[in-house]
Amino acid sequence: MSGAVDLEGRVVVVGAGLAGAELAISLRQLGHRGPVLLIGDEPHAPYQRPPLSKAVLQGKASEHDIRVRAEAAYAKAAVDVVLGVGVRSLDPLGQTLTLTDDTVVSYDGLALTTGGRPRRLPLGDDVDVHELYRLEDAVRLRQLLRPGARLLVVGGGFIGLEVAAAGIAAGADVTLVELQERLLARSCSPALAGRLASVHRERGVDLRCGVGIVGATRRSDGAVDVSLSGGTTVVVDHLVAGVGQVPNDQLAAEAGLAVADGVLVDEGCRTSDPHVVAAGDCARQQHGWLGRLVRLESQQNATEQARTAAATLVGADPTPAGVPWFWSDQYEHKLQMAGVPEPGCQELHRGEPAGPGPLSVLYVRDDTLVGVQTLDRPRDFVAARKLMAQRARLDLGRACDPEVPLGDLVR
Predict the structure, then answer these.
(1) How does the average pLDDT of the chain come out, rounded?
(2) What is the pTM of this model?
(3) Judging by beta carbons within 10 Å of its beta carbon (0-12, 13-18, 19+), is residue 181 exposed, middle or buried?
(4) FRET partner for 240 with CA separation of 20 to 30 A, picked from 10, 150, 153, 336?
(5) Structural fold of domain 341-409
(6) Residue of 9, 47, 48 whose CA lies nearest to 27
């Protein structure tokens, strides 16, 4: 199945985030002439989510600053944008969508860019647990980050650590608990995670790993008693959950499309239905560069998949998937990562794992660089991405010398 639709046909894009906006505009750039409709359940024009836990939370960026494109760009591209309405159901046989306002929309080609939603902490109705996924979440939380405010962050992943850094910058008292024995257990090397832990503790974060929440009770004065595993209790003013997200694949699942922790798509972002593609955080793709089925939550992946899905819809040849990459800003430090290394890779360090100073962690399999994680070493990150795209084999004898440029290590 090609997945292509007639160039005069109607394409509907469900989900007005980065992937949806990029896909809609890409259709025009690739020559699609038929109607293009972009539907989003938020009232805002498409915006980028990574700044929410960084610049927006710290008051350094506004809604206007994080737009994917100016509103005029959609009008210029003849993309009809419908905001503040969701999709209730999908009928693949009839090729129609029923919206939450009961409008029925037909399509010739459909793109699902429905993103994800935060994983919830079940702490009862009397305890407010803040999340950070939508613009309103960041604005609301930013107003709560005040000097002396007692903040408990649950989760030692990127979102949790960025919220902790923003809280410290605002003068709040921050406690962060992570159920795993270390930070970033699923995504980062122990050496780099240890360095980040030291950074946060030095800034004043009360960081507790191997600790979970047992329960929480709101006091009459509005504060919250939070019971932690191990028998301790902390009293806080606000709780923030940063415990990951789940894909919004229920619309596809209820319509009979193949899903497995995300809408299943091939390298061309085709779903199990020949008229439907999917892209972004909701999609689990057979990734060309990684050579396996993965669901990636990143701005770069959303953009690449959106362009691939648009090419598939118009019958063009998509650009092969590149090396996936990610980043995080915490205080003045920048963490950059590329690749998704699997267990069994050799791990090499450029810099002192215990610090101080910049650090790069290289992941190597059969002398080939398959992953990199850098802390304040942007040149290593840029060079490593190029070497990984080339499947370059390295001279491992000099790889741990931080004075040797990575580009000079190619065998």
Answers:
(1) 95
(2) 0.95
(3) exposed
(4) 336
(5) Enolase-like; domain 1 (3.30.390)
(6) 9
